[in-house]
Design a protein that fits this description.
Elements (H helix, E strand, L loop, with lengths): L3 E2 L2 E2 L5 E2 L1 H14 L2 H4 L3 H14 L3 H6 L9 E2 H12 L2 E3 L3 E4 L5 E3 L9 H9 L14 H5 L7 E2 L4 H8 L4 E2 L6 E2 L12 E7 L6 E6 L4 E6 L11
Parallel strand pairs: 8-13
Antiparallel strand pairs: 1-2, 3-4, 5-6, 6-7, 9-10, 11-12, 12-13
Helix pairs in contact: 1-3
Length: about 230
């Protein structure tokens, strides 16, 4: 049976099991054209589920919870989470606001790459959207935006990246992906200065790679992208 409420598939008690999901996928295949059904979230879940099952051995299938005790997936909880993600950012012409943290960010990249000192000075003297209290972000402030963040580069990055790379979205250039929510990822390039100075070498400052989720410190005279926050 197909459980529909107000035109939306919900399953029993506004939750659905994988068995119900599979039934719904078959239903959608019969009712909708490929162009229409490919954008339905439940149909995408259904296709991913079939791919997952197809990758398993018979023994693995016999031992996964779906076939022993049908699990419920709370659709209402998922929809609430997705709604919160959509409403997290307020996008304006020159800035975007993270309603989760209260930070206001410069929307556009710097027009050109600058040294750390020049980037820091630029932000401190910036007047944008009626505000003059801008600053170069810290690593912690950048971290509040990221979908995943490794931290300082070391030998463990590779395995972490493989486990988390699916959390990336398309960046400013479609050739690369960045660890940022899709609502703002298109505003960002790859490397950005932070205002943090190395405790070991005071002529070095930290910059962050959004595509691989790590940071490094480097010579402050190096030119790099930057973005201001308040």
């Amino acid at each position: 049976p197909i459980f529909i409420k107000n035109g939306v598939f919900v399953g029993k008690n506004e939750a659905y099991s994988y068995f119900e999901l599979e039934a719904y996928g078959v239903y959608i295949e019969k009712k909708y054209s490929p162009e229409k059904r490919e954008n339905l979230r439940e149909y995408i879940d259904y296709k991913n589920y079939l791919s997952f099952i197809a990758s398993l051995s018979a023994t693995q299938i016999a031992n996964i919870p779906e076939f022993k005790l049908t699990p419920k997936i709370k659709l209402t909880e998922r929809l609430a989470k997705e709604k919160a993600e959509r409403e997290r950012f307020t996008i304006r012409k020159n800035v975007f606001i993270d309603n989760k943290t209260g930070y206001m960010w410069e929307k556009g990249d710097s027009e050109k790459e600058l040294s750390w000192h020049d980037a820091k000075s630029y932000c401190e003297n910036l007047v944008l959207d009626g505000y003059s209290d801008w600053k170069l972000p810290s690593r912690d402030e950048f971290d509040t935006l990221m979908t995943a963040y490794y931290g300082e580069y070391d030998s463990g990055l590779s395995s972490w990246f493989e486990a988390n790379k699916h959390k990336r979205n398309s960046g400013k250039n479609s050739d690369y992906l960045v660890f940022l929510p899709k609502e703002i990822s298109q505003f960002f390039g790859l490397w950005y200065w932070t205002r943090d100075i190395s405790k070991t070498y005071t002529s070095y400052s930290w910059f962050l790679n959004f595509s691989f989720g790590y940071d490094l410190y480097y010579y402050q005279y190096t030119n790099n992208l930057f973005r201001c926050v308040r």
